[in-house]
Design goal:
The complex is a heterodimer. By secondary structure, chain A is an alpha+beta fold. Chain A folds into two domains: about 230 residues, no CATH class; about 120 residues, no CATH class. Chain A is built from twelve helices and 16 strands. In chain A, α7 packs across α10 and α8 crosses α10. Chain A starts with a strand and ends in a 15-residue tail after the last helix. Chain B folds into two domains: about 90 residues, Elongation Factor Tu (Ef-tu), domain 3, CATH 2.40.30; about 160 residues, Rossmann fold (3-Layer(aba) Sandwich), CATH 3.40.50.80. In chain B, α3 links the parallel β8 and β9. The longest helix of chain B is centred in the C-terminal third of the chain and has 13 residues. Classes of the chains: A alpha+beta, B alpha/beta. At the A-B interface, β6, β7, α4, β13 and β14 of A face β6 of B. Bound molecules: flavin-adenine dinucleotide (FAD), iron/sulfur cluster (2 copies) and FE2/S2 (inorganic) cluster. Flavin-adenine dinucleotide sits at the interface of chains B and A.
């Protein structure tokens, strides 16, 4: 729908309006030296004037002289933790004699996410395909997802680890948001360009008195996006990548990266598209039990355990599984890449393994590849 | 909210293919009762289940499995081992090898268990029509393939020659010995059994199951083979079948992987691009042949 102008002090009106519409508002805030997506009460909770520095294996926040609300790029956490919680009770059970009685709760909180980046919205859409798009619908995900309101915010900056454009997930916001914001802070002016993309979004915006845009606003918005695009230096060459990965399970680079990888699972835990889970039965002293689903990682040693032992016992095979899944088998399974280029796995990898660099090396035919050819800095 | 008869709350109206045994969520089991139980070997039991609450039971077919939930212990994939023409009861044969299978083997009649399913692909009963059928089972692998034998016996005219080769570790580890005797008595079925090792009292064949293959009667140009057992046995059996002239795309195998959901959501069972739980467990060999060549996939 049409683009309007919103003043910075109206951002709080937007948040209050969403809250009055019965949503629990989740937004970015500074917490323990990182940006976290947590329940917020007003625009004052937003990380104003805070930017992030991300490099392979490094993350830091910095307070600068700026009134920008959304100056950081992406949080180490993703919205996934709300739609697909890290720990989720599937059901509680009680025993009566020989019988079993199951009980489950429905989830009645409606979430509103403020500050969803393009790559993050793309990640949500990828998870929609997994949890909602197949023969079996995950109703636990569905009830959270269907009620969620998404307020996307365009990027004005990149971090050193992200690469959305080359995997087609940004920097323009893909469809699927309810409201899209562009924060403009230039020539001494600070305002938001705002548009709704759904009825739910429009209803919220109707309560705020927005101004009309002028012609140059479109130019300013486009120019900001173009500057972001130009800054995205990191790339993945996706053409032909799938068959290169599938055809070369014994590429020498897998051995090299396996020497660096700690199999710590950080990459999978921060990734907004990873969906693997384990299930556990938690028993209490009264003999009652509950069944919990928890995020799992293909880097754990017993992930593939069957009676005789683990199928993927070497770190090499586990690293290969993760990267090949993201960039190759995911395409067979869900018709898209499993990566949106948010850069989290690069930033949060303790030894700083950079998947874009690994993919570059793995794209060299094994017989032409020289050890250490594409080297990490 | 108590789960029970108020199933509309969790029913998903837009999708007609979900919730096999369960009406609430495909991740929450329906409750079944152990109707009876019988001992197959020193560590293996068969249990017969029927559903406790009125819930939607979809039809199940040879090759499919259920996720069986033992209260407070866990949930594991177990194939349907009974006759699929009887859709009233579900039969499972379970070997006690660990935590959950132990709990399931220790159930008594009247005990309740959770069931999600039936999941996964089926043996290609229609494609086998008019062909010679070779069935290779190893160890507990006879259980997932037994429904095929029941089906063939009930629809004998649909199939040509039928040969069953079964290998167990030792004579006392053989599943369904009386039934095997019964199948043997059918003149139109070849049934051969071997064990890996045995005491002198055993008068049967000793050796791995693949050694039986050349001794089965079939016309390689019109034969389909079904293989179920440990992966290593599948590899050797497939090799032997191919060298006996069977077309690789006439071979079906049932694969085993760690499974935590059975419906493509937990990621655990991946084998290359396949989710063994929903793209399998029964695969045409040609669809997975490339994966057999990759170590630690
Ligand atoms: C499609 C399919 C059909 C099967 N059908 C049968 C059957 O008809 N009869 C039978 O006795 N067994 C069958 N199995 C094997 C059975 O699932 C395992 O023996 C069982 O999971 C072991 O669990 P446990 O808790 O007793 O053992 P533990 O060693 O304590 O295992 C711990 C966990 O590891 C996983 N796991 C361990 N072994 C396996 C395995 N072989 N396959 C998958 N996950 C495993 C499970 O999540 C299990 O809970 C089947 C497996 C698959 C994949
Ligand atoms: S693989 Fe890495 S860059 Fe890609 S979406 Fe996951 S965390 Fe982000
Ligand atoms: S974060 Fe890095 S070290 Fe840890 S498992 Fe992932 S790739 Fe390996
Ligand atoms: S068992 Fe969960 S994806 Fe196959």
């Amino acid at each position: 729908m049409e683009l309007n102008v919103m003043q910075p002090d109206q951002l709080d009106d937007l948040i209050q309006g969403i809250s009055l519409a019965d949503y629990q508002v989740i937004g970015p805030m500074e917490s323990n030296g990182a940006i976290a997506y947590e329940p917020i009460e007003s625009a004052d909770d937003l990380p104003r004037g805070i930017i992030d520095h991300q490099r392979p294996g490094k993350y830091a926040l910095q307070k600068i002289q700026s009134s920008r609300f959304f100056g950081y790029t992406v949080s180490p956490f993703s919205w996934k933790k709300y739609l697909y919680p890290p720990v989720q009770t599937l059901f509680k059970a009680e025993r009566n004699g020989q019988g079993i009685q199951l009980e489950t709760d429905s989830h009645d909180v409606k979430y509103a996410f403020i500050g969803v980046r393009a790559c993050e919205l793309s990640a949500i859409k990828i998870q929609d395909k997994i949890f909602l798009g197949g023969d079996y619908v995950d109703l636990h995900y569905k009830e959270r997802r269907e009620n969620a309101l998404i307020v996307a915010v365009e990027c004005f900056n990149t971090c050193e680890t992200c690469f959305c454009d080359s995997v087609g997930s940004g920097p323009e916001i893909p469809n699927g948001a309810d409201i899209v914001l562009t924060e403009i802070l230039e020539s001494g002016e600070h305002y938001f360009l705002v548009r709704s993309e759904t009825e739910a979004g429009q209803e919220i915006l109707n309560q705020i008195s927005l101004k009309d845009t002028e012609n140059n606003h479109y130019l300013i918005k486009d120019a900001q996006l173009e500057r972001v695009r130009a800054k995205l230096k990191r790339k993945v060459q996706t053409t032909g990548l799938k068959s290169k990965l599938l055809k070369n399970p014994d590429h020498p680079r897998w051995d090299e990266v396996a020497e660096r990888c700690l199999a710590c699972s950080n990459c999978t835990m921060v990734c907004p598209t990873c969906f693997c889970a384990d299930v556990f039965d938690i028993n209490d002293l009264d003999g009652n039990t509950k069944r919990e689903r928890r995020w799992d990682s293909c880097f754990t040693s017993d992930f593939t355990y069957i009676h005789g032992g683990n199928i993927r016992h070497s770190v090499k095979s586990r690293y290969r599984q993760w990267l090949t899944h993201k960039f190759a088998s995911w395409q067979d399974q869900f018709d898209s890449l499993g990566c949106v280029g948010c850069g989290r796995c690069i930033t949060w990898c303790p030894p700083g393994i950079d998947i874009t660099e690994e993919l570059k090396a793995l794209s060299i035919p094994p017989n032409q590849y020289k050890k250490g050819e594409i080297n990490h800095v | 909210m108590q789960l029970g008869y108020n199933w509309l709350i969790y029913m998903d109206n837009d999708s007609n293919s979900i919730m096999a045994f369960n009406r609430h969520s495909p991740l929450i089991p329906g409750i079944f009762e152990v109707k009876s139980k019988s001992k197959e070997t020193h560590d293996t039991w068969s249990i017969v289940l029927n559903n406790k609450e009125p819930c939607r039971v979809e039809t199940f077919n040879p090759g499919q499995f259920n996720m069986l939930y033992a209260y407070g212990t866990g949930e594991i994939p177990i194939s349907i081992s009974g006759d699929c023409s009887n859709q009233k009861y579900i039969v499972h044969t379970i070997r006690d090898v660990g935590k959950v299978s132990h709990a399931l083997c220790n159930l008594k009649s009247g005990d309740q268990v959770g069931v999600r399913g039936p999941f996964g692909t089926t043996w290609p009963m229609d494609q086998l029509k008019g062909k010679d059928v070779v069935i290779i089972g190893g160890g507990i692998g006879l259980a997932p393939i037994r429904p095929v034998i029941f089906h063939i016996l009930e629809n004998r005219d649909d199939y040509n020659r039928v040969a069953i080769a079964y290998g167990a570790r030792a004579p006392e580890e053989m599943l369904y010995p009386t039934q095997i005797m019964d199948w043997r008595s059918h003149l139109d079925m070849q049934v051969r059994v071997t064990v890996d090792s045995a005491s002198p009292k055993w008068h049967g064949q000793v050796g791995v199951v693949t050694t039986l293959i050349p001794r089965l009667n079939f016309n390689p140009d019109n034969t389909a083979a079904l293989v179920c057992g440990p992966e290593i046995m599948i590899r050797f059996a497939v090799k032997e079948l191919i060298s006996n002239g069977i077309n690789p795309d006439e071979i079906w195998v049932s694969m085993e992987r760690n499974m935590k959901c059975g419906i493509g959501l937990s990621g655990h069972c991946q084998m290359g691009s396949m989710f063994v739980c929903k793209d399998g467990p029964v695969f045409n060999y040609m669809d997975v042949e490339r994966y057999f060549r990759i170590k630690e996939l």
